[in-house]
Amino acid sequence: MASVTGLEGIVAAETELSFVDGEKGLLIYRGHEAKELALQTSFEEAAYLLWNGKLPGDEELIHFRAQWKAHRVLPAALKAIIDQLPAKSDMMSVLRTAISAEGAADGTSRAWPPQPEAALRYTAMLSVIIAYRYRQTEGLPPVEPHPELDHVANYLYMLTGKLPKQAHVKALTTYFILAMEHGMNASTFAGRVVLSTQSDMASALCASIGAMKGPLHGGAPSEVVHMLDEIETKERAEMWLRQQLSSGQRLMGFGHRIYKTFDPRAEALRIITTGLAAEDPWFELATLVESVAVNLLHEFKPGRKLYTNVEFYAAAVLRAVSMPKTLFTPTFTAARMVGWTAHLLEQASCNRIFRPQSVYVGTIPG
Ligand code: CMC
């Protein structure tokens, strides 16, 4: 049988966008520690940094915020396409279809290289698409964007129709910044491969959204909630986790290709969630499950260095801000749009088509 490498350890590109030190548990965005940015800046400022290479000055930020808000409107033709999708369509498929439709409609599908304005437009639009579709499937009337609110607060507002609590905006902003970029992960790589053929940004984003959807990548947080729902009580935790591992199942929210220690994003999200949900019995159960799971992973997979990853506490934060479970992966996607589009712009600036090789291990005729 062919040996499966998953391209582990292969360098696919040079990037100025982020650095992940898996041994030390360090994540840097363009020279700034992501954890610090997450606690101190707005999502808009962090996005500006990734797209432009520096944090914005006061005037630049005012202009940038205004540009961002101007892109929150969904064209009527796009809404009509979303409206036609069956109610049973999952949200990630809706997002992939909507970005594809918008790419077909905007007339830039053959433009090369992709422009920074498109990065902002698709990012601003994606959260609005999620809110529009979510309310539609819930039988609720759509909510117009709030002109005073920034991206993350506006996302919560458009989902619920209510002004969000400040603590929820703060927690979700932390999550958005920590989730926005993470080096050459599967979805980013998928997008860069498509763009390297001199294809357009929408096509590349469709590939990224498709990759993000899988449970081994962006689909993990809702699986974490599912796991905790099944465990139900603290008393059942060890037995349930042991059974999973004994039958060869993976525990969602644990393990990472790069991090061989605690994922720094998980640590920052745990701090935020503790402040929000310390009294919540679900969170108490999550904390217990985490420590039992890490011990059992060491017992079942000695030497594998399996620790909690970002998705475990992403689930906790998203639950604490009352995000519906069906929107966990879409919300991760809304944040990651910044990283994807930054990578696409970077790929275009130094492009060479990706063309790895495979080793034929089949039979040769004759
Ligand atoms: N539970 C149990 N065993 C695990 C887990 C886990 N969560 N993760 C890895 N292992 C085992 C795996 O079975 C293998 O054991 P063995 O060598 O005995 O066959 C060993 O650890 C090494 O695993 P691997 O398959 O080489 O790991 P990978 O780098 O290919 O996969 C991963 C990384 C994240 C897909 C994997 O750890 C996993 O499936 N985790 C659960 C899903 C999850 O939480 N995904 C979110 C990842 S963080 C968001 C992101 O960056 O995308």
What does this structure look like?
With 366 residues, this protein is mainly alpha-helical. It folds into 2 domains: 18-215 and 326-349, Orthogonal Bundle (Citrate Synthase, domain 1), CATH 1.10.580.10; 222-320, Cytochrome P450-Terp, domain 2 (Cytochrome p450-Terp, domain 2), CATH 1.10.230.10. The chain is 58% helix and 3% strand. The protein has helices at 34-40, 43-52, 58-70, 76-84, 91-105, 116-137, 151-160, 166-179, 186-195, 201-212, 220-231, 237-246, 264-277, 281-300, 310-320, 328-349, and strands at 18-21, 26-29, 32-33. A 3-stranded antiparallel sheet has the order 1-2-3. Strand 2 and strand 3 (32-33) form a beta hairpin. It is globular and about 55 Å long. The two termini are 21 Å apart. The model has no long low-confidence stretch (mean pLDDT 94). The structure holds carboxymethyl coenzyme *A. The site of carboxymethyl coenzyme *A (CMC) has 21 residues, from helix 15. The active site is at residues 256, 311. This is Citrate synthase. Belongs to the citrate synthase family. It catalyses: oxaloacetate + acetyl-CoA + H2O = citrate + CoA + H(+). Keywords: Transferase.
